[in-house]
Write a structure and sequence with these properties.
By secondary structure, the chain is an alpha/beta fold. The chain folds into 2 domains: 221 residues, Rossmann fold, CATH 3.40.50; 83 residues, no CATH class. Helix content is 30%, strand content 21%. It has 11 helices and 12 strands. α7 links the parallel β7 and β8. α3 packs across α4 and α4 crosses α6. The protein is globular and about 65 Å long. 41% of the residues are buried. The C terminus is likely disordered. It binds adenosine-5'-diphosphate and magnesium ion (MG).
C-alpha cells in the first residue's frame, strides 16, 4: 500500500553565517513513512531536529534553512517540488498543524468564531453560517464546554488547555489526512497533557486521520502511538512499533531513554540520566553520533556511520547489531513494559 507520507533520504541544512562559512547539515538522511490512519511518534531531546523536520515537511523552514537533498511525498504529490501556493492549500486542508504554543495558530485579535470560520472558508466555498456550524461541531468534538458562548470569546479569555483544544478543532476543521502535532502538550500541566494526548489520539483514530506526534517524552507516547522513531542529533537511530521499541529497545541510546523513564527508578532513588550531552547535529564526528556517550563504543563506531539493522519494521542504526559484529552482548533486555 502506498504510504500517506513518505520521506526519503532528507537532508536539511543551514546556510553558513558569513560568505565563507560552510553550509551546516542539520538533518542527516531522514527516511520515514506514515500509512493512512497510522499514529507515529518522533522522540528526541531538545535540539535533535524534530521541529526542523516538521517544518521541512510543510515547507515552512526558517530563512537560511533549506532542503539539500531528498524527497517528501504526500498523497501522490512531491511536496518539496510544489509552488508555495499549492503547498498553502495542502497545509490546512490535507495536513493540519498543532504547535506547542497555541498562539502560533491563533490570532489574538479575532474571536474563536472569526478564526475558525475564516480558516474553514479560506479552503472551502461555503457560507459564513455553514462554516460557523462546522466550527461549532468541531468545538464539541474537542470537548470545549459551552461552545456557543466560547465562539464569542478571544483566545486570551480561554485557559491554555482550552486554547490548545481550539487549535486541534481548527486542525480538524478541514478534514485533513494527517495532523502534525509538535510538542502540543509540553506547555501544559501533567493532567492536561494526558487529556490532550487522549483527545488527539481518539479524534485521529475515530476519523481515520494519521498523526505525526513530536515529543521529547517517550513515556508520554507509549499508549498513544503505533510506531515510534528515535531521533538523535539530526539522525533517526531507531524505528519500530512503539511497544516493541519500549520492550525490546535495540539502540543503546533508546535503551538509555527507557532506563531514564520515571517508571524504571525505585522510589526514593535518583532518576537515571544518560551521561554527557547530545552534540549539535552539525558537530557530530565521522562515525556514530551517539558514540561519545555510548557504553559499548568501539573504534569502528568512531569511524564509520552505522546503517539500519534489524528485521523490517524494527530497525536500529548501531554497529553492534550488524551480523558481522563480534558478539552481541549489549542486546540485553533493558526495556520493560510500561
Ligand atoms: N537559525 C539557525 N541557524 C543555525 N542552527 C539553528 C537555527 N535554528 C535552530 N538551529 C539548530 O537546529 C537544531 C535543531 O533544532 P530543532 O529542530 O528546533 O530541534 P527540536 O525541535 O528537536 O528541539 C538545533 O541544534 C538548533 O540549535
Ligand atoms: Mg522543537
Amino acid at each position: 500500500m502506498m504510504p500517506l507520507l513518505h520521506i526519503d533520504d532528507l537532508w536539511v541544512a543551514y546556510n553558513g553565517r558569513g560568505p565563507n562559512q560552510p553550509v551546516q547539515n542539520m538533518l542527516h538522511g531522514i527516511s520515514l513513512s506514515i500509512q493512512r490512519g497510522e499514529r507515529v511518534a518522533i522522540i528526541g531531546e531538545s535540539g535533535a531536529g524534530k521541529s526542523l523536520l516538521t517544518m521541512a515537511i510543510i515547507n515552512l523552514l526558517q530563512e537560511g534553512a533549506f532542503i539539500r537533498q531528498g524527497k517528501i511525498e504526500f498523497e501522490d504529490q512531491v511536496l518539496n517540488q510544489l509552488t508555495p501556493e499549492a503547498l498553502r492549500l495542502i497545509r490546512g486542508r490535507r495536513i493540519g498543524m498543532v504547535f506547542q504554543d497555541p498562539m502560533t495558530n491563533l490570532n489574538p485579535l479575532l474571536t474563536i468564531e472569526q478564526q475558525l470560520v475564516q480558516c474553514i472558508r479560506s479552503h472551502r466555498r461555503i457560507s459564513y453560517q455553514d462554516a460557523r456550524t462546522i466550527a461549532l461541531h468541531k468545538l464539541r468534538l474537542v470537548h470545549i464546554p459551552a461552545p456557543e458562548s466560547r465562539l464569542l470569546q478571544y483566545p486570551h479569555q480561554l485557559s491554555a488547555g482550552q486554547r490548545q483544544r481550539v487549535t486541534i478543532a481548527m486542525a480538524l476543521s478541514l478534514e485533513p489526512a494527517l495532523i502534525i502535532a509538535d510538542e502540543p502538550t509540553s506547555a501544559l500541566d501533567v493532567t492536561m497533557q494526558a487529556e490532550i494526548m487522549h483527545l488527539l489520539n481518539h479524534l485521529c483514530q475515530s476519523n481515520g486521520v494519521a498523526l505525526l506526534f513530536v515529543s521529547h517524552d517517550l513515556g508520554l507516547v507509549a499508549q498513544h502511538t503505533d510506531r515510534s522513531l528515535i531521533m538523535y542529533a539530526g539522525r533517526i537511530v531507531e524505528d519500530g512499533p512503539t511497544a516493541s521499541l519500549i520492550n525490546d529497545a535495540q539502540h543503546p541510546y533508546t535503551q538509555g531513554l527507557i532506563k531514564a523513564l520515571p517508571q524504571h527508578s525505585r522510589p526514593g532513588s535518583r532518576l537515571y540520566q544518560i551521561p554527557g550531552q547530545m552534540p549539535l547535529p552539525q558537530q557530530v564526528g565521522p562515525g556514530c553520533a551517539f558514540a561519545p556517550r555510548c557504553p559499548y563504543t568501539t573504534e569502528r563506531c568512531l569511524q564509520q556511520i552505522p546503517a539500519p539493522q534489524g528485521p523490517g519494521g524494527h530497525q536500529a542504526s548501531c554497529h553492534l547489531l550488524a551480523s558481522d559484529a563480534a558478539g552481541d552482548s549489549h542486546m540485553g533486555h533493558t526495556g520493560g513494559s510500561l
